[in-house]
Prior knowledge:
Two copies of one chain form a homodimer.
Chain A: H1 3-13, H2 18-28, H3 37-49, E1 53-58, E2 66-71, H4 73-84, E3 91-93, H5 95-101, H6 108-137, H7 143-146, H8 148-175
Antiparallel strand pairs in A: 1-2
Helix pairs in contact in A: 1-4, 2-3, 6-8
Chain B binds a DNA duplex through residues 1, 3, 17-19, 22, 35-39, 41-42, 45, 60, 62-67, 91.
Amino acid sequence: MSLRHAILAMLDIEKGSGYDLVKRFDQSVSYFWAASYQQIYRELQKLESEALLESEEVIQQGKPDKKIYEVTPDGISELQKWLEKPAKAMKIKEPLLIKIYAGELADTGLLIEEISQHKAAHATRLQQYQEMSELLINLEQPLRSKYFLPHQTLKLGIKIEEAWLEWAEETLEAIT
Amino acid sequence: MSLRHAILAMLDIEKGSGYDLVKRFDQSVSYFWAASYQQIYRELQKLESEALLESEEVIQQGKPDKKIYEVTPDGISELQKWLEKPAKAMKIKEPLLIKIYAGELADTGLLIEEISQHKAAHATRLQQYQEMSELLINLEQPLRSKYFLPHQTLKLGIKIEEAWLEWAEETLEAIT
DNA sequence: GTTGCATATTCAAAAAATTGAATATAAGCT
DNA sequence: AGCTTATATTCAATTTTTTGAATATGCAAC
């Protein structure tokens, strides 16, 4: 159960609303943590009820109001305590790979189409990560230091997206 | 819920016991599907109760007896039906990356130690995958054809493990 | 003027995964 | 004889995730 720690870590770097978090999860850590909006909103409520987060209502014009969450000192302690314990093993579920694994039973055309789509999605994501990476490179101190480790994680995202893209190309060639 | 389809796909390639499957998941598809032994055994029972699998008791000497599961024609149909539908999105949980993301709050020594351990684990896994890949390359027809697509998935595993290893080295250098 | 999109959040039933305990055979080691 | 490791499987309570439905504001396009 480290969704809570992922949320605490992200809000510690920069506070924000549930909606912001959903986007940040999707746009910058999706290669190492997948979370739905329902999961995130639920966990935010729970974290606030445990006083690990506190929120402030922000009235907006032109948009619905929002709640900005911020990590409390207790939240920081909780995160630090978690950081001392060894990390649990990775868990992954990638249905596309099962399809390819069992591809002998599938229609080759459909397979090609799906791999192409995934390739496009990975290309988009790679570009997104690269843009984000450039933003981080161009930051000035002390922000640059603050984002050093998040940036380091992003570099893994880039490498993994590159691996996917290469592989998708080779696979499309191989099955055509 | 495609654990069932992962199991059907693997047993379609080669029948085996729950114990065999646990090892196969761990040794060859762990970079795209994580499953615990409890999950696998439970799902095998369910699949058999739905007549998508059938089992045969095998009495062994020197070892406990085992149940060998095999996919039924209904199981093949179910798998084919699933293959026609677009694959769901990948889900991933990698707690180590959260730790690195929040690493400013952590002890650098502990962080280095953990990254080193993960690096070693990825190196072992890479070697495992490479050995498996060589086995598959050296197969003779028709087995080679049969394993063409599983082999293709393995190649992604190799690329991803390589990306991890590279990244772990760079990260260790960067934070030391 | 209504359809669709982006913003913003909440609730709850159902399904799936995790955690932890249990059981059993037999080989190898000290 | 007792300990560990590998093989082999089952059950159940608890926790987490998924799926699906709701609600609300305001902009832009048709």
